[in-house]
Input
Amino acid sequence: MSVTPGKGSVHPSIPDVEELLRRYAVLLDLYTELESVSEDIFSAIESGSSPPFIRESLDLKMAVADRIVGESRAIAGMKKMLIEEGALESRDRKRVRHCEENLTRMVGRVVEQENKGRDLIMNRGIRIARR
Output
C-alpha cells in the first residue's frame, strides 16, 4: 500500500515488471513439477503400481494444480494493473511475451502428457473420474 502525495488516500502499490517476470518463472517451475508428477503417474499406471501409490501421486498432482491456479490468478492481476497504469514499456512487453511463449510450450507438453495418460487408461479399461 502507498499513499498518494498530497491526497492522503491509500491504494495498492503497483507491482513492477521484475516481480511479474519472477512470478512467471515460478509458474513455469510449477508446470515443470506438474509435468514430472504426470510422468510418474503414467509410469506407475503402466507398470501396474498399487492403487494407494497412484492415489498419493494424484493427490500431489492436485496440490500442484491448485498452486498453478493461484499463481496464474496473481499473474493476471499483476499484469492487469501494470497495463492499466501504463507501466509496461515496449521492452518490458517483449520480456513478458518471451515468458508467455516459454509457458505456452510447457503447457503444450503437459497437455500432451495428460492425453498420453488418458489414452493409456482408456486402452486398459480403467475408469477415470474427471473433476
